[in-house]
Design a protein that fits this description.
The chain has 2 helices and 17 strands. It has an 8-stranded antiparallel beta barrel with strand order 1-4-5-7-8-10-11-17.
């Protein structure tokens, strides 16, 4: 037992003695990977599927890396994703227009193993976890009144309702994969710059959503607003739920419109990052 303790202590001391700590900051852009159907485009002649991934967009990362020796290390990172707009519903019909998009605003973290192939080339792979944030839906809808509806509102034919609202979608905490291959260039003993190709493999299961902004106006044919705030967040139209819960099972006799079947949405991406690294002095004394 004493011999085992001595060996373990020696390994630990050796690891700490040759340890190297560094901190990196980076930013980059990623395109969607493993895209899925997100919505549809509809016009008078056809309906077309739209595909994408909410992982597409600009990211910002801060990472801390500890090397046990000249080759192996562990990496802990946190990041923020500002996703690009993904088309959910684009409708162009004579009496109806819809422009609905959604984009990610998410925080995440990763824990990875790092291996240096050479002094300049490295790779890392590990687990990816979404910490918080949301998928933000931004919806615009224009609907031209029928003659009966226009008469009921006391407005001329050709008038229409114009609705703008935002809905925030949240999901269960997922676990994904992250992998990267990079090249670094040492500026001096402490600073280096790097570029890397990075892959995220992750999807998110919907948990709930909530409408955060809502407004409907009645607009005349010339664009003048006849009625402002016909419907608001505190006065939603019939059939519109402020909060929605997503579940795995739903009865065929369910009448609660605030419950819907859940779905998985893609966050996978492939991107390029550029950044700078600061290396602290080694813990061992030369």
């Amino acid at each position: 037992m004493k011999h085992l303790i001595t060996v373990c202590a020696a390994v630990l001391i050796s690891t700490i003695s040759y340890g190297q700590l560094q901190v990196s900051v980076s930013s980059g852009y990623a395109i969607g990977s493993a895209t899925m159907k997100l919505g549809e485009k509809v016009n008078t002649s056809e309906t077309e599927n739209t595909y994408g991934s909410y992982g597409e967009g600009t990211n910002f990362q801060i990472r801390g890396t500890y090397f046990f020796d000249d080759s192996f290390g562990v990496d802990l990172g946190i990041g923020y994703l500002r996703g690009t707009d993904q088309e959910l519903s684009i409708v162009n019909l004579p009496n109806t227009e819809v422009d609905a998009v959604a984009r990610a605003r998410a925080f995440g973290s990763s824990v990875s193993v790092v291996y240096k192939f050479t002094n300049n080339i490295y790779g890392r792979f590990g687990a990816l976890l979404k910490l918080g944030g949301k998928t933000e839906g931004v919806i615009y809808r224009k609907s031209v009144f029928s003659a009966e509806e226009a008469a009921a509102f006391g407005v001329p034919e050709g008038s229409y309702s114009e609705t703008n609202y935002k809905e925030d979608f949240h999901g269960h905490f997922p676990l994904g994969f992250v992998g990267a291959l990079g090249y670094k260039y040492d500026i001096n003993p402490h600073f280096s710059i790097f570029a890397e190709a990075e892959y995220y493999g992750i999807s998110l299961k919907r948990k709930d959503s909530e409408i955060s902004e809502f407004n409907t106006d009645v607009v005349l044919p010339d664009g003048t607003v006849a009625v402002s705030g016909l419907y608001t967040l505190e006065n939603l139209p019939d059939g519109t739920d402020r909060k929605t819960t997503y579940v795995d099972n739903l009865s065929n006799t369910n009448t609660d419109t605030s419950k819907e079947l859940s779905q998985k949405v893609p966050y996978s991406s492939f991107g390029i990052n550029f950044g700078i690294t600061y290396k602290f002095q080694r813990f061992n004394k030369e």
